[in-house]
Structure formats: C-alpha cells, structure tokens
C-alpha cells in the first residue's frame, strides 16, 4: 500500500512540474499573458457606484472589466495602443475569473466572437461595445442594458 501511495505522489509531482514548465515556457515565449487583479478600479453605472473588478496585463495594454449586478456578470475586453483604445468587445459567454491572477493563451482568446459577412474575408464582432470613449486608465461606454458605464483605475 505504501508503494502505491509513493508512486501516486511521484506521478502527481511529475504532472505539476510539467504544467509549471509549460506555463513558464509559454509565458516567456509570449504565447501566454497573465492578467492581474487591479484593486484601484472605480466603477460607476448611471452615476452610481457599481460592483465589479478589473484585471490587466503587466503592461496595462490589455484589460478585462467585469461588471456584477443582480442579473449576473458581464466581462468586457479592451486593448490600448499608444494610450488609446484600439479594440473593445463584450465577452459573450466568458467571464473573467475573480482571482488575483489568471493566464490566457494566444491560440483561442476569449471575447473574440466573429461572424462572417456577405463580403469574402470580412469579419464583424458579434457583440461590439457601444459609445466608447477613453484612454489608458479611464473608460466610458454603454453596456448591454444601454446603461452608461464609467471605470477609472491607476496602474
């Protein structure tokens, strides 16, 4: 019995080391990006404080903003280039986990819901963000319920 437990423990350790090495390699190679919880975020919906959280990558260039209300949670993804918004989308069926940190790989990132149009090679987002204004550290947009959302944070 003792040999089986020892063998099982070695197998678990080998799997954990393999996963850790794979995460280290993919992070170092740029295939995986880690998002960290930003506790300085202030969120207002229609001018009233709202519940939610923000996670950003190390550079602050890519952020996930999750709003939480009685109807559930909704996550939005924003990417900044030269301090200005270059990409924004509502995440259809994915919610950012409320964890101190989480990884996302580049093979199938969340919030990339596209549909083809009648024109060959043209794609559109299924759930774009409306009335978007902002720059790195500050956002203002209309959510799915057509409510004005404002979020601000510091790095």
Q: Please, could you describe this protein's structure?
A:
By secondary structure, this protein is an alpha+beta fold. The chain folds into two domains: 1-30; 33-152, no CATH class. The protein contains one helix and 13 strands. The protein has one helix spanning 2-28; strands at residues 32-38, 42-45, 48-49, 51-56, 62-69, 72-81, 84-90, 101-105, 114-116, 123-125, 130-135, 138-142, 148-152. The strands form three sheets. The protein has a six-stranded antiparallel β-sheet with strand order 7-6-5-4-1-8. Strand 6 (72-81) and strand 7 form a beta hairpin. It is elongated. It starts with a helix and ends with a strand. The relative contact order is 0.18. The mean pLDDT is 83.
Quick take:
With 155 residues, the protein is of the alpha+beta class. The protein contains one helix and 13 strands; from the N terminus they run αβββββββββββββ.
Write the layout of secondary structure elements.
Layout: H1 2-28, E1 32-38, E2 42-45, E3 48-49, E4 51-56, E5 62-69, E6 72-81, E7 84-90, E8 101-105, E9 114-116, E10 123-125, E11 130-135, E12 138-142, E13 148-152
Antiparallel strand pairs: 1-4, 1-8, 2-3, 2-13, 4-5, 5-6, 6-7, 9-10, 11-12, 12-13
């Amino acid at each position: 019995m003792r040999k089986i437990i020892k063998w099982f423990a070695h197998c678990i350790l080998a799997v954990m080391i393999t996963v850790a090495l794979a995460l280290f390699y993919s992070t170092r190679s740029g295939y995986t990006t880690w998002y960290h919880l930003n506790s300085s975020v202030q969120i207002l919906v229609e001018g009233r404080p709202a519940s939610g959280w923000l996670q950003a990558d190390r550079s602050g260039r890519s952020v996930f903003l999750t709003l939480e209300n009685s109807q559930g949670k909704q996550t939005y993804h924003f990417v900044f280039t030269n301090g200005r918004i270059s990409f924004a989308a509502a995440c259809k069926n994915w919610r950012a986990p409320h964890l101190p940190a989480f990884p996302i790989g580049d093979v199938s990132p969340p919030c990339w819901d596209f549909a083809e149009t009648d024109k060959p090679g043209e794609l559109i987002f299924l759930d774009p963000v409306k009335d978007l204004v902002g720059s790195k550290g500050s956002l203002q947009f209309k959510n799915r319920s057509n409510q004005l959302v404002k979020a601000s944070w510091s790095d």
